[in-house]
Sequence to fold (227 residues):
Amino acid sequence: MTIPDPLGNWKQGDSVRYFCSWSGGKDSCLALFRAMGLWGAPVGLFNMLTEDGLHSRSHGLPVRVLEAQAAAIGVPLVLGSASWAEYEDEFVRHLTALAEQGIQAGVFGDLDLQEHWDWERMVCAKAGLVALEPLWHSAHEALVTEFLEAGFDALIVTVQLDKVPEEFLGRRYSEAVAELRQIGVDVSGEGGEFHTCVIEGPIFSGPIGYEVEGVRRMENHATLVLG
Fold:
């Protein structure tokens, strides 16, 4: 089986019209940062919300925070919403609309979860797009260093409680990395141990404002409620 090129055979400086699949967290942000260094700004950021349209399905971020991130980057925010049962169909519907606007590809922020890339390639192919993975198979520790040394920082907004104590919620990622290592957690969080919300960095015009309104708990996860 031929392994696809994570950059889709495009090179630095090529003219690529792409969107970024935007969770609001550190990995999608770093993937976008790398993509912008190769091909310039994206056409937009795409995020899927819960079916009530209030929060991002992946990281539990409110729409206001996603809008603030997109505004600080200076690109449009494209939102969809769906239940898990309807998620794939709705995702493809939005990608098809993007393709009809002349967009060629989508940038995703996965590191090494093959099933994620397989799914992204599949839904992009259904819409006539190419899935790109700028972080693919990068060393996890090296990505942390790149993210922080570039000037980004983030809040820890969700934790998997059997892996990461709830006390990590609301902490700056830059300040928590060492302790995450100490408790044996993959500092990339690629296995879903925790999620982040990027609040500052070189692609933003300024820091992202937020208020902490509480904590939402569901089964084995705790999520910071941001306002």
